Amino acid sequence: MMTRQYNQTKRNNIVGATIIGFVMMLIMAVPPAAVSSDKNSRIPKISEILHNNGFQTLLFALDATSLTAVLDENKVVLFAPTDDVFQATADALGCQDVEELATRLLNTPVGDTNALAYVLTYHASLGRYKNDYDVLSAGELQMVSGDTVTAGVNANGLYVKGIVNETASAVTTEIFRAKRTSAVYGIDQILLPIDPTGICD
Fold this sequence. Notes:
By secondary structure, the protein is an alpha+beta fold. About 40% of the residues lie in helices and about 20% in strands. The protein has a 7-stranded mixed β-sheet with strand order 4-1-9-8-7-6-5.
């Protein structure tokens, strides 16, 4: 009787050890990214969001003015015109392409900076906002350029509006979350603190 119980216990131990070993093999076979939780997943930098989501023209302009690292390393709300918006703006201003528009702005002085850097910093607001409501119900947002944009909600949804813009710019894409509690809002116009008319004449 005791021999039978001993053998049964031994078999149970072997089966248990086999199952544990099999489970361990499965765990070791799964890539770390697959078992990591969402909380531990890597949050992208602003530059990575721009590169991967249709904002490469904006990223090119930020690189040209040495502003990319500044945005990546700070808490920022960035209003980001898409590549199509930059192309449409270049066409409307009579520029050959977005590269000519960027070059003309880069070579146009505004105070102690250039027009390209001035326009780009007019799209970024430093600081930490708890949520989207804080950003878009603020009424006015202080931008890095030193000027303000108006923000809120209208019949078309969330919007921001520059000083010189005739109409408000709609927030057109999903809101992208970035490192350091930053956020990127896709918009359908370039926010204008200055009038660019004649820039490509």
